[in-house]
Amino acid sequence: MKIRTKLYGLVGGALLVLVLAGGVYLALLSPQERIEDERRTLDELSTALLSLQVEVNRLDSLRFSMGREHLASRLKELDAAFQAVRGISFVREKNERVRESLEAIEALQEIILEDLAEVQGLYESLYRWAGRLYGVGDSVYPKQFYVIPPVTGGEEEREEALVQLSFFDNALTGLDGSVETSLSVLEEQTDLIDGQIRALRRQAFSSSLVVVGIMVSVILLVLVLTARGMVRRIYGMLSGIGRLKEGRLSVLFDTRGKDELASIGRAMEEFTRVLRAVVESMSDTVSASREVRESLSGVSVETNAALEKVSEAVKGVDEKMVYLEETAKATAAAVASIVEAVDRLKEQIQVQASMVEQSTAAVTQVITTIGSMATIAGEHTSQGEELVRISKEGKEIFESGFRKMEAVVEMAGRIEEMSRIIGNIASQTNLLAINAAIEAAHAGDAGKGFAVVVEEVRKLAEASSRSSREIAESVREITGAIEGARAGIWDTRESFSLIEEKIEEVSAAIAQIAGNLQEAGTGSQQILSTVTTLRDTSNEIHEDSLQVSEQTRRIAASVSALEEVVEYVTSAMRRVEEDFQEVLDASRKASDLVVILSEREVALEDRLSYFKTSDS
């Protein structure tokens, strides 16, 4: 009888024993499988709660398009898990404490779903707020409410959205507490069910062990009787295996005969041949791996050095961006100061333009007054000439009769009246000159030339006043002379000659006053032209100041935008620096792995050296 047949019999008996033992075990474990199924239901509920907790805790960092989808999915999973918990019946009936725990879990469902409904409602509200503030809410996540200014909404709407966000955070906290409570209850229930399962397993294992022990004893008895004939050949094979264990791959096995041991010997020789080929192939592979490892080590070192340089460069750029941010803030402050200075300059220019307008009006008034004075002086000049002519005619006919002396007295009265008029004109001219001097002083540097002209006009008015007084005195002398002429004709003739001389002097003085007033009028016209030019220039400067104010405000807005860009770039550079640090850490880990690979390679070579592919 071949060993194969014997072994087939032994295997068949062993299989029969195993089938019988399995039947007993399955019969004893059928309630256990149902308990395990119901326990897996609790595991699924625990998994659903953990998934919900994880998903809820990262809602504020997810875009609304993903967050809404994930939240709805987790809600469906949680509802299905609770429905499965309600379907637990076997464990509920077997254990009172389990039933109470399941009822507590089912009661927690209402609390969790209520908190979850509140969270979902607030999340939808935040989604609508995101649409109002940023146009499209799907690509926005809640944390952006804190850092990104609104695009389509105002700051007041943003504040309301932040209030909703605080409510949302509070609701998340409450939901997290409910989930933690549910997980605690689930953990307690799982421990109870695990205790029940362990008790059933012990019972089933004990029963199965008794049955299997009996059957195994029978099989062992048969094996002992069968094994005696194979011990010798097996010892020989064990000897070959021992040499194979020592790494001698050139060992030979007994292949005589046609039984299974001979087949095993041939198989072992084939195995030895294949193992020898594998060892030789592994040796070649280790050599190739050494070359790859050395190349990888060099590349890793170069990569680490390059990443170090890039990291230093990124840090330098970050420092420059910080300096640029500080410079932008200083520029913004300077531009704000410039805007304030330009506003003050604009106000001063407006005041100056107003003063120039007032000066123009004053100069125009002075010119008008001087023109009037010139007209009056011209009229009195012609009267003075007429008076001279009359005095000459009076001198010629004076000797014809003293009767006309009364007419001379009348003419002297007229002259006295004219002297009073001239005196009044001189007083008014002096007063106007003082007013003009005050206006010229108000005009500043632009009124200095006009002040000189006004001073000359004032002096001319004083001279005219003195002349008028002299005329008045002369008239009084003429009157006295005429009165004396009544006493003596010869004294009258001499006085008449004196009157003629004085009249000529008065006429010359009036003519000189008229000429001076004409010159003053011409100078005043020049002053008016200059003041008009100054007024136009002031208006142009005022318009330019308005443009400068507008440009400085635009510069201030540009600097403010630059501050925002610099702040964004600085934040991005810091994130880049963090990413480069992560890459550098990964590269260093790769270097460490290269070292570990080298150590493993040495160990593998040591293990391969254990095998000897030839007798030498």
UniProtKB/TrEMBL annotation:
One of its GO terms (cellular component) is plasma membrane. Pfam families: MCPsignal. The keyword Repeat does not apply. GO terms for biological process: chemotaxis; signal transduction. The chain crosses the membrane at residues 204-227. Residues 228-280 form the HAMP domain. This is Methyl-accepting chemotaxis sensory transducer. It comes from the Bacteria. Residues 327-563 form the Methyl-accepting transducer domain. The keyword Membrane applies. It comes from Winmispira thermophila (strain ATCC 700085 / DSM 6578 / Z-1203). InterPro entries: HAMP_dom (IPR003660), MCP_chemotaxis (IPR051310), MCPsignal_dom (IPR004089). GO terms for molecular function: transmembrane signaling receptor activity.
